[in-house]
Amino acid sequence: MRRSFTRVAVTGAAAATLLAATATPALADSDIILKFQHGYFLYHDNGDVFEVCDTKADGHGVTGVLLENNDNSPVPGFGEILRVDDGGDAGCDKKGHDVQKSPSYTYQMRLHWNGGGGTLASKSFRE
């Protein structure tokens, strides 16, 4: 029974990640947040600041990653442009990155718990 539940959970998580990765880009006219039981990754649109916060004292931190895809680049696909880690200290960690206001740039946020498990991904978005 436990194996069946694990398979269903893994399959569901994979399907959700695939749907998030293939969704039509949204406009980032407001803040975006990814949240799970271990922490959150927040994009503050006003100021282009990315904040990651470890909310569970379990000995493992969380990592937020910002990916960018430039349609005019000779190398297609998303590439990592920002990484913010938090854990082991008080407060949250923040970094700024200028999200381009151009239709050729698409972004995606991903949040990962450093104790294992999957990665939570946002829908693709544009400024």
**Radius of gyration based on Cα positions:** 15 Å
Order of strands, main sheet, comes to 2-3-4-7
Our count of helices gives 1
Task: Enter the CATH topology name.
Answer: Immunoglobulin-like
Name the helicity range: 10-25%
Overall residue-averaged pLDDT value: 84
The count of strands amounts to 10
The CATH architecture category equals Sandwich
Q: What best-fitting shape do the alpha-carbon axes yield? A: globular
The total domain count is 1
What is the CATH C level class, in words?
Answer: Mainly Beta
Which band does the percent of strand residues land in? Answer: 35-45%
Structural class: alpha+beta
Secondary-structure element pattern, one letter each: HEEEEEEEEEE
- The termini sit apart by 45 Å
Low-pLDDT runs? 13-23
Biggest pleated-sheet summary = 4 strands, antiparallel
Keywords: Signal
Signal peptide: 1-28
Ordered list of secondary-structure elements with their pairings:
Elements: H1 2-22, E1 26-27, E2 32-36, E3 39-44, E4 49-54, E5 62-70, E6 79-86, E7 93-96, E8 105-113, E9 119-121, E10 125-126
Parallel strand pairs: 1-10
Antiparallel strand pairs: 2-3, 3-4, 4-7, 5-6, 5-8, 8-9
